[in-house]
Amino acid sequence: MSFLCLSAPLSAAEQPAQTEGSKAQVEELLDKWGEHYSKASTLAERREAFEKLMLKTPGPSRVQIRQVDAGGVDAELIWPARVHYPIGKRAVLYVHGGGFYSGSLDTHRASAASFAKAASADVLLIDYRLAPEYPYPSQIDDTLTAYLWLLDSGYESGNIVVLGDSAGGNLAIEATLRQIRLKGPVPAAVIAISPITDLAATGASIKANAASDPFGNALQIEAARKAYLGDRSAVDPKVSPLYADMKGLPPLLLQVGSREIALDDTLRFADKAREAGVDVTTEVLPGMIHQWQLFPFWLDDARRSNQRAAEFALQHFADKPRQ
Description:
Elements: E1 4-5, H1 20-37, H2 43-55, E2 63-70, E3 73-80, E4 91-95, H3 105-119, E5 122-126, H4 138-152, E6 160-165, H5 167-181, E7 189-193, H6 205-208, H7 218-229, E8 252-257, H8 263-275, E9 280-285, H9 300-316
Parallel strand pairs: 4-5, 4-6, 6-7, 7-8, 8-9
Antiparallel strand pairs: 1-9, 2-3, 3-5
């Protein structure tokens, strides 16, 4: 697989080639996805379908896991089982995806554990409150609370990377922007995978990629947005980072699949962040669908993209692991 780093949307002819093996793996994943989601129409049903799908995936291995109370936020601290560095030196705050209304420790534990090993770091996977039971700003509150808990626990800001996928990417960015507004110490870097940057869904790929992305149902997008925001404006910069003042953001890695509905929103966000002086790395992965990175046991491309994200974190930690 080749990563394509860019800052503007591509035409179909310009998209990098996807291997036949990769295409076959994605189609197999979509078949599994369809088995669980075909009859899930409400948000509650989709939440349950996500849990059931991820329960059938391999669990974490060669890590240690401890339940923690991160300032009132339920979480798990995950670290490599065999390491040659002091525990508590580097940390990744992992903010799971799921449209603000789904996802849990169970759906993302294996992914977080894999990242702990690849990045030689302690990973704090948080179980933030979900919509519609807890609408905005509960999710951002919990994310920032967990970040502050890491600081209070002795991790230096220069050794903390915040990572989120999908809705978690939105929360990772928005929590960091709030920390900037509060004039507090910001993390060493932010990694946002398939981030939801525009809750108003104005990007061209929302429609252009609707047929190729299993998350392309406009009614489901609208239902999730209402559950999270209620009557709040979707272009409020405190909920959609595309509209925010991005000055002061730390180095940022954005990964997005070429067939995602979120493709253009991610690229527009990258452009605006660069204009604000942010150090942005953007990677478009050919043929990938939303949240592909959760399935490294089924997708070779997911393993490679996750390794690239881990390398980005390692590059930005102030204290590097000993070899």
